[in-house]
Amino acid sequence: MPVNPAHTALWPAPTVSEAVDATVHVPGSKSVTNRALVLAALASEPGWLRRPLRSRDTLLMAEALRAMGIGIEEGVGPDGTGEAWRVLPAGLHGPATVDVGNAGTVMRFLPPVAALADGPVRFDGDPRSYERPLHGVIDALRVLGARIDDDGRGALPLTVHGSGALDGGPVEIDASSSSQFVSALLLSGPRFNQGVEVRHTGATLPSVPHIRMTVDMLRAVGAQVDTPESGGEPNVWRVTPGALLGRDLTVEPDLSNAQPFLAAALVTGGRVTVPDWPARTTQPGDRLREIFTEMGGSCELTDYGLVFTGSGSVHGVDVDLSDVGELTPGIAAVAALADSPSTLRGVAHLRLHETDRLAALTKEINELGGDVTETADGLHIRPRRLHGGIFHTYDDHRMATAGAIIGLAVEGVQIENVATTAKTLPDFPELWTGMLGI
Ligand SMILES: O=C(O)C1=C[C@@H](OP(=O)(O)O)[C@@H](O)[C@H](O)C1
Ligand SMILES: C=C(OP(=O)(O)O)C(=O)O
User: Which Pfam families match (predicted)?
Assistant: First the structure.
């Protein structure tokens, strides 16, 4: 297979000797944008998405919905300011083909949508997408009445033979490998004939805030959802069948993508302001206020946004990241530069993310002279003096941003394929050098 030059290109990560002092406008949330697209597509009237994230994952979602017949017009908003997408719901059609890339949200949220289409919808994606868990969605849809052809591994590639409607009803799943199984079934649930009742039977459940995000966004478009938090049984979510409203939704900045910029303030003893940080949010990135404070910074949340200030010292942490797994690479990078060891727990499922993130972080930090060991469910990180070298990224956007954090403090770090950040943050190199005033 020919090697894509972008995949081997090296980006010299800038090193700084002075404290960073910058304001960084972080683009919209991937998780919110892709949920909003699905909900708007399933609504019974047109809707708007303002400040959507425009990245590989969200463009794949938009393209997939278009392939099934939904209108999505990219342009400026009704008041003429800022990017806004108009979503025009329509009957869902097959035959259609969906490229999921390596987007968990696309490969998991769309098979239930495809089950509502009136013909076959073929799903395919990057080689890594074949390895990422999808059995929870496939098995559940079969129980709920869908016909799906796969190669028997419970993974991509596959075809959902939509018949225009799905019975729905109760279903048990083990979502211990991805919270997105639960979110996927809930998002389309209002359009199933009997709604859906999802019962998680596994021993652990990662990324619970992302399930809350799904529930909040469903309720915001008029769905009735019963949850463990609203007095229901533990690990059971129930969605009542019903029409969804078309809304005008403004997407919050992606707080997980704010992480490298906040980390820059922490590592350099500087200050970074992120405008429009929401006062209340279900995004897991909000936990950074607490975790990075424990690691040596301090923060102030104002009407303008979040001001995060480093103290000049970086401390290790012992933290359970099961709720906020996508923050692990960035926390590991900061922990490798700290003045004491760290233990990151509760994230065994990261072995099945964009890459095996526990193995990748261990290997890449150790190749720069670090001392990281994998545990059954996380990492032990003992800081050491690091040196330059190539930081491989394995087509993982968060590996690239983790390498850039280390590069701030360690000369000669070269990030392989920084373009992989386009998955959720296409302007990363420009935002990074802009923050550093380069
Ligand atoms: O629903 C979502 O938007 C996400 C849920 C989480 O997935 P897992 O539960 O598979 O970790 C998270 O890691 C991912 O980045 C986004
Ligand atoms: C795990 C992630 O993405 P995905 O939505 O592809 O699961 C992530 O963004 O860290």
Answer: EPSP_synthase (PF00275)
Respond yes or no: is residue 326 known to be catalytic. yes
Last residue of a domain, one of 250, 271, 303: 250
pLDDT, mean over the chain: 97
For 282-308, how does the pLDDT look when each residue is reduced to its tens digit (9 = 90+)? 999 999 999 999 999 999 999 999 999
Cis ω before 157 (30° cut-off from 0):
yes
Q: How many domains does the chain have?
A: 2
Whether 258 and 347 share a structural domain? yes
Query: Is the CB of residue 369 less than 8 Å from the CB of residue 384?
Result: yes
Contacts with 109 (C-beta within 8 Å, 6 or more apart), sequence order? 34, 35, 38, 61, 180, 183, 184, 187, 188
Q: 316 CB less than 6 Å from ligand 2?
A: no
Residues 312 and 230 in one domain: no
In this predicted model, what pLDDT tens digit does every residue of 59-110 receive, in sequence order?
A: 999 999 999 999 999 988 766 668 999 999 999 999 999 999 999 999 999 9
- 51 in a labelled binding site: no
Indicate which residue's Cα is closest to atom 7 of ligand 2. Answer: 104
Cα–Cα distance, 2 to 15 (Å, whole number): 33
Rounded to 5°, angle at Cα 422 from 416 and 423: 105
Nearest to 315 by CA among 337, 338, 341: 338
Q: What is the 416 CA–ligand 2 centroid distance (Å)?
A: 19
The pTM score is 0.97
Q: Is the ipTM of this complex over 0.95?
A: yes
